[in-house]
Specification:
Layout lengths: L11 E3 L5 E3 L3 H21 L6 H21 L16 H17 L13 H26 L4 H24 L13
Antiparallel strand pairs: 1-2
Keywords: ATP-binding, Cobalamin biosynthesis, Cytoplasm, Nucleotide-binding, Transferase
EC number: 2.5.1.17
GO molecular function, one term: corrinoid adenosyltransferase activity
């Protein structure tokens, strides 16, 4: 199997099921942003210290869920192959909420606005958080025009909160002071 197909050379791509859309269509933008978030999480994982095994395992689960979310977004409800795609479900969102609660409880107390930074993996998780927020905005835009699984939006919203909590937890676990916003000086 060749990596290139030449089917996208005219600026179109195929949804799961065969429908063709422009590469700038809101649906393609949405799942493209999810792919970028997934890639950023993979980068953050590559920077994790060895002792962060639990965090790495959970991020791996998230990456798999994001791959599934991309398929969810690339498959129209009622379209061809719609029954073959596992849609993001309420249980997926609930799992993220449980992790948010645990990382928040185990992490440092919140005393003010946190600037992205600290340990390299924590900083990368903060970038993943920002990319996830952008993916969420793209899915919101898509949902204004077409049917979208509402759990997909909830999942992305919780994921950005989780990545924030994970970054804070990791900084604390590594003994790195997280940078705090100082406000305007002078």
């Amino acid at each position: 199997m060749k990596l290139y197909t030449r089917t996208g050379d005219a600026g179109e791509t195929g949804l799961f099921g065969g429908e063709r859309l422009g590469k700038d269509h809101p649906r393609v933008e949405a799942y493209g942003e999810v792919d970028e978030a997934n890639s950023q999480i993979g980068f953050a994982r590559s920077l994790l210290p060895e002792e962060a095994k639990r965090l790495d395992d959970e991020l791996a689960q998230i990456q798999n869920a994001l791959f599934g979310l991309g398929a969810d977004l690339a498959t129209r409800e009622g379209g061809a192959y719609a029954e073959k795609v596992r849609r993001i479900q309420a249980e997926d969102v609930a799992e993220l909420e449980g992790w948010i609660d645990r990382y928040t409880e185990e992490g440092p107390p919140f005393t003010g606005f946190v600037l992205p930074g600290g340990h390299p993996a924590a900083a990368a998780l903060q970038v993943a958080r920002a990319v996830t927020r952008r993916a969420e905005r793209r899915v919101v835009a898509l949902a204004r025009a077409e049917d979208v699984n509402p759990e997909a939006l909830r999942f992305l919203n919780r994921l950005s909160d989780l990545l924030f909590a994970m970054a804070r937890w990791l900084n604390q676990a590594q003994g790195v002071n997280e940078p705090l916003w100082q406000g305007r000086r002078g």
